[in-house]
Amino acid sequence: MTREELRHQQNLQRLRGLRPIDDDFMRCLFKDNIPLAQLVLRIITGKPDLIITDCQTQKDMKRLAGARSLCLDAYGTDATGKKYDLEIQRADKGADPHRARYHSSVMDVENLSAGQEFRELPDTYTIFIVEKDIYGMGEPVYPVERMNLLTGKPFDDGEHILYVNSEYRGDSDIGRLMHDFHCTNAEDMNFELIARRTRYLKQEPKGVREMCKVLEEMCLQEREEATRETAIIIAKKMIAKGVMSLEEIAQYTDLPLEDLQKLKLDPPEK
User: pTM for the whole thing?
Assistant: First the structure.
């Protein structure tokens, strides 16, 4: 077996174990699939009449020079212009409230152009599907809203944040949906829209080729990240020794000089 054939077999094995709760697989599920996005958002928001008119995956939201870029897992628009950011956050760290705040603020920047009035901002929904019940209360969805602490009334700024507990298994649509998000096999799923797309990506030749390409890109990205992490470790040691200039370290590690300048300012690890 050639190296390429072996890598292909490894990708097929990895594909069999993927679930909708895995963000790369989720992006492929939602790609060009408005009906599926509409089903999921109707269930999570509790809006059975919600009409989704557009859904994009891996939406790049960077609009401000120097700001941290953001690539949304799935970004949808409904018939009234409201915006929905649907994210998979498997690690508790990814569910940090500051991250949710940033996602909301970036959607605001994306949706208000020069000359528009602030009141023209659309309502936004930042939805984090988290692997664990981070609040530990057994609820399917934890909605987060701003409120006036003195009056006790909602602030009504149009920003909505929802944490979805993917551990929830109640006898309801959201419970059945979260069950499906943890399935590797389409035949075990409750919702045909999810099952049909899963069968396509895991069983049909065209879908399998699509997924194998995604997995190849994931492997390449993981190797690049591992190489960068190793370079950073080496650079930190070289900076600590102080025997080489930052320019020389940049040539040795292939790290940008700007990154090395930041590393030099970082406090030493204890």
Answer: 0.81
